[in-house]
Amino acid sequence: MKAAFLINFIADTIVENEEIKVDHIQLENIISGNVSLGYIAFNKNKNDPEARPLITPIMESGELEEACCASCAARSLFAATTGLTLECIETGKANSPMSAVSALIMASVLHAGLRNKH
Asked: Is 66 exposed, middle or buried (0-12, 13-18, 19+ CB in 10 A)?
């Protein structure tokens, strides 16, 4: 049996200049407050402004493996936080906002999972 859960990620840009952009990534949690997953750094190539930036997910414990895109970096942060494998985590854009009941259920599951991880 497979189960699927929807979780809202919140990305806030905290630093941005010509060389780097850093987003703070959080999981929306309406029960106990948002949960910080870490940061995603987008390092721009000064020698080739048209080149794709180097994308690095960062946690308090250090940098994770470079990612091909912001979505994959968020997956890496989520996997490292929860102990899930990357293969079982998918990202995408939601077509509609999460209902209050769905949000409460997901927040409870996430809260229990994170509490058991630490």
From this structure: middle
- Contact at 8 Å (CB) between 89 and 106? no
SS in 3 state form for 77-111?
HHHHHHCCCHHHCCCCCCCCCCCHHHHHHHHHHHH
Name 92's Cβ contacts closer than 8 Å, sequence gap at least 6.
Answer: none
Per-residue pLDDT reduced to its tens digit, 87-111: 887 777 665 555 555 555 666 666 6
Tokens 């189960």 sit on residue = 3
Angle at 31 between CA 27 and CA 34, to 5 degrees: 25
The string of pLDDT tens digits covering residues 28-80 is 877 778 889 999 999 988 888 788 899 999 999 999 999 999 989 998 998 89
